[in-house]
Amino acid sequence: MAAAARVSRSTVSRAFTRPQLLSPATVEQVLTTAARLGYVGNQAARALSTGRFGNIAVVVPDIANPFFPPLVRSLQLAAETADLAVFLGDSDESAEREAKLIARLAPQVEGFVLASPRLSEQLIRELAATRPVVLVNRDLDGIARVLIDSSGGMTEAVLLLKKLGHQRLAYLAGPRDSWSDGQRRTTLARVSEQAGLTVEVIETGRPSYAAGRESVSAIVRSGATAAIAFDDVVSQGVLAGLEVRGISVPADFSLVGCDDTLAALTTPALTTVSAGAASAGAAAAQLLITLLQSPDGRPADAAAGGEGAAAAGASGAAGGRAGEDGGGGECVRIGTHLVVRGTTAVRGGMVA
Amino acid sequence: MAAAARVSRSTVSRAFTRPQLLSPATVEQVLTTAARLGYVGNQAARALSTGRFGNIAVVVPDIANPFFPPLVRSLQLAAETADLAVFLGDSDESAEREAKLIARLAPQVEGFVLASPRLSEQLIRELAATRPVVLVNRDLDGIARVLIDSSGGMTEAVLLLKKLGHQRLAYLAGPRDSWSDGQRRTTLARVSEQAGLTVEVIETGRPSYAAGRESVSAIVRSGATAAIAFDDVVSQGVLAGLEVRGISVPADFSLVGCDDTLAALTTPALTTVSAGAASAGAAAAQLLITLLQSPDGRPADAAAGGEGAAAAGASGAAGGRAGEDGGGGECVRIGTHLVVRGTTAVRGGMVA
DNA sequence: GTGAAAGCGCTAACAA
DNA sequence: TTGTTAGCGCTTTCAC
User: Fold this and answer.
1) Angle at B331 between CA B330 and CA B336, to 5 degrees
2) Residue B230 carries which DSSP code?
3) Is the CB of B351 within 7 Å of strand D?
4) In chain B, pLDDT over 90 holds for what percent of residues?
5) Is B337 among the domain residues?
6) What is the pLDDT of residue A4?
7) Is B27 within 8 Å of B15 (Cβ atoms)?
8) What is the CATH number of the domain that holds A211?
9) pTM, rounded to two decimals
10) How far is it, in rounded angstroms, from Cα B149 to Cα A317?
11) Domain enclosing residue A208, as ranges
12) For residues B123 and B112, what is the distance between their CA atoms, to the nearest angstrom?
């Protein structure tokens, strides 16, 4: 071990950030000494100097909703590979709190992933003008986004229910501000009409087990013999409510959930529209990373979303990317499909 | 609106951080102008100057495990009230990754909440020597911690199973590094012996639906007629595996999960040991906030954990706090109790 | 009650 | 290849 030569401030800095500018020996020496002294660079000072923080934020309406944890998880894992630390914000399904969180986080993050944002379009656009933003399940032209397209799976669901002999469906709706809910309503209305079925939409505020359970009386009143719920948790609630009334599934009633979360893996297992939340998280992270790397805050090439699209493909659905649209926001679209399980058993149901 | 007088740098700073030093009129004026201009202080610069970041980190082994989201959620909500932003780290059940995450986050957080850490005691102690650390479900003397004490609920579970006529139980174990798992094993062994029952421990690596499902052959081989699983997710897997083999629950077999997560709210609903993850999150946040506020990094008074204890009480269990022990780490203990639901129905079971 | 000035620890020109 | 210098935007004595 050679005697340690004194080096300057900048040499130390360079040893960490751009070692190729120094002689290997110097780098080596600095790094070793630093390790021995337990020196670690001060993030705040670095950020102050460079304007870069190495942090991103992901904001979700409710981390306790089982759709989000896998998304956040794969996002964080992907972020780690780019050495980005991730802030988590839970807006509690409130646009107002979402705005507050964003304001609080903005001064120390380089970019945002807003998952199922409840925020107004205007506010999102204002934010996106400031720094890279990737949306998940919100379709704003010109802003990078990952969309889980439920229309495929929803269509399959309606057709299956028709085949089982149902004529009157109920849709347990999700939050009004949710893009996914909007897409599901629309698809459902369109496809049902084409198939000659009627759909009763039942509003259920915040998607929860309790909400599902309580909506059963409305379902029964509607005369529906099958229901599609906004998500698997609501669906579980419906299942419980039906049981209490002695309506058995799938013998007397068919049920379909959405998202294919942990909540669908029960006994009996839920028929559900698979959503690939984990793929969406990975894709969103990838997109944001690309945005961050390109100097002008726009994707430099087609690399973005590659992994996400692959993952979507792996889920068996039609995954793919649409290129730039009008404003220049990359859009990754993840397809869905119906996973048929116990709650709509073909062997049971109306035609059994 | 008076004409805006030019004020100095420092006045602006004070208006935000210590308004009591300024005349109300000045404060008012600065704040209004700041709002109009959209000015927000630069966190990095503030941190550089004060050494405080206003950030904390919560590290979990697997955010996709339904035990953690409610914990993280209430933690983040509580942190918000103290204007703390929260980083989320997912260690993927690996001690090594946990260490890396902590190292990455350490330079920009004021404190850590380590939930179910897989890290070695030594590393945890080293970290705790550096900055405030609150542990969840890890019992290290002298370090602040929140413990969900499963022994109460586990004991009730064993007694219920005995009453149902079972003599041979299986325990589907959790990760070896998990304190909760250790506590559950120990309690189970002790109580079962006292009750004259035998317990077969079946190892299942990472707790998951698949692991539970695959462990069914071992359960059957063991001759057990009832099983207690490390958590509800594993329990659901077991349920599915049993069904495949035509073993029906609770008629032929009794099943108990742990944590009382979303995964227990199914049809049939799972009998489970309620764990109050949300209370634990709130209590941990509270504890950390108190630690952060006391200049020496130790709680100043008994305020810490008050909310958590209250919440624990609300869950119907015996919640409470132990005061300082040897080293000075506050310890909040949250009790548990058995929630009896469909998978161990008293009307069914072995004695039906 | 308010302003002036000195850093916090780092990076990034610019020199050498 | 390395050192010197000038800030990044804030807080904080210390004067006034």
Assistant:
1) 160
2) S
3) no
4) 74
5) no
6) 61
7) yes
8) 3.40.50.2300
9) 0.89
10) 44
11) 149-275
12) 13
